[in-house]
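FYI - complex with adenosine monophosphate, inputs then prediction.
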Amino acid sequence: MWGIWHWLERQGELRPHKAALVEGASEVHYGALAQWVACLSGGLAELGVGRGDRVAILAPNRMEYVEVLFACARLGALAVPLNWRLAAAELAYQVGDSEPAVLFADPELAALAESLRGHREAGGVRAWVLFGGGPGPSEGLPYDELLAANPAGPVGAPEDPFLVLYTSGTTGRPKGAVLTQASQFWNSVNIGTAVGLTFRDVTLNPLPLFHAGGIGLYTLPTLHVGGTAVLARKFEPEEITRLLLAHRVTAMFGVPSMYLMLLECQAFRQADLRGVRFACGGAPCPLRVIEAFRDLGRLFQQGYGLTETAPTCLIVPAEDAFRKAGSAGKPALHVEAKVVDEDGRDLPPGAVGEVWVRGPNLFSGYWRRPEATEEVFSGEWFKTGDLARRDEEGFFYIVDRKKDLIISGGENVYPAEVEEVLYRHPAVAEAAVVGVPHPTWGEVPHAVVVLKPGAELTADDLFRFCEPYLARYKIPRSLTVVDALPRNASGKVLKRALRERISLGA
Ligand code: AMP
C-alpha cells in the first residue's frame, strides 16, 4: 500500500510538465513539485524529523505549504497547520500541545512567529524556517536551504497519522483532530466522485489550508487526480473573480459567507462563469444564496462535513442541487451516516436527531486526548453533535448544532431555522440567533443582525415579518444591530462570543 506522497510521485511521471499548483505569479509543474518535495523531505530529515514527529506551519495559502504537507507524508511525519488568525497565546497552546520539532512561517507573519517564539510552550521547537528564501526569524533557517538536501527515502504509509488539525473552537478548548494519510485518500475519492473532479479540472481554493476544508476541498483531491489547484492567498471578492476568469477555473468550494460576499460583488455577478461548478458547505447556507446561483445558471452543490470527517461527509448530487435546495445532501460514496435519538437508536424520516457517521474517512482520535475521543465515539460511529432530519428520499437537513439548541418554555428552537427566515428580510445582510435568559421561559431567541447599507429595522418590524413563517415562541423578541458578526477563520459565526456580547449589553 502507498502513502499520499505516492500520488505526487506518480503524477510527476504521468504529467511532469503540467501545472500542479498556481499561486500569484508562481506556478509549479508536477515533475518539479515531486522533486522539490523529495528534497524537502531530505532537509527535514537532516533536521531530525522522522516518522511520527510533528511539523507546524504558520502561513497563508502558498505553494510551499503544500510542499511541506507532502514532505511530511513522505517521512511519515505529522503536519500541524496553524490558524494565523489566532493570537500568539492561543497558538502557543497548540504548539505546546502538539510539540512540533520544526515550525515553518510566512514572512508576512514573521512578527507573529517571533512573538510565538517568546512563549514557553514553543520552547521545544528545534528549527524555525521562513518561507520565501529570505532570512528566517532571528536565528531561523531560510526555506531554500532545506531544498538543497538529498531526498530522504519514502516511508510514509496510509495508516500513518498525517495531520493534527485543531478544530474551530466554537465549543470548548481546541482539540487536535488526528487524520491519517488514508483519510485524505478517502476524502479525495468521496469529494472527487461527488463533484466529478478529473485531471481536466482547474480548482480555485480560497479556504485556508489550516482547515480540513482548505486541504480537502479541493487542494489535495485536485493533486490526486492530476488537475491544477489555484491557491487563493486571501478572500477578496474582486480578486476571486479575477482568478476564476484568469485561470479558467472549473470548480470551486467555499463557505456560505464567501458566497454572500461574492453575490454582493458586481464584477462576480457580471462575469461569464459558465465553466465553473460551485460547491458550498461548512455552515448553513441561506436559501437566497442557492437561489441566486440557480438564477445565474450556475451549478451550486451543498455539502456538509467536519474536521473529524476529513471533511466530506454529505453532499447533494449535482442533479438535485436545486430540487433539494436547503438539504446538506446524502452520504458521500464511502461514508455512512444516520440520524439517531438520545439513546443512539435509528430515527425514521422526519424526526430530528443527532447525525452519526462511520467510514474510512474518519479521524483516528484527538491528539493526546483519549477521554475526549471516547466521548465522541459510539463503537465505530462518530457522534457529530449536529442535529438533522432526513426526508423520505434520504436527504439530510442539518437543523443545528446540538449545543446551539435554544429551549424556550420547554419547546425546542433551532437557530438555523429562525436565521433562514431573518435572511429573507430585505433589510438584513447577515443574521444570527442566540438564546438569551428569560425569567419565565428559561431562554428566548434573540436576533443579532447586520443591516444592509442605509437600512433600518426594529424588533417589532422583525416580529411582524417572521409571524407568517414561524411559531410565535421561535420568533426573536429582541434585536441587536451590529456592524459585523464575529466569525472564525472558516466563516462560522461564533455564537458564544455573541451571547457574551449581548449579556454585557455591548
Ligand atoms: P468544522 O469542524 O470546523 O469544519 O465544523 C464542522 C461543523 O460545521 C459541523 O459540526 C456543523 O455544525 C457545521 N456545518 C458544516 N457543514 C454544514 C452545513 N452544510 N450545514 C450546516 N452546518 C454545517
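The longest strand covers residues 428-438. The chain has 16 helices and 27 strands.
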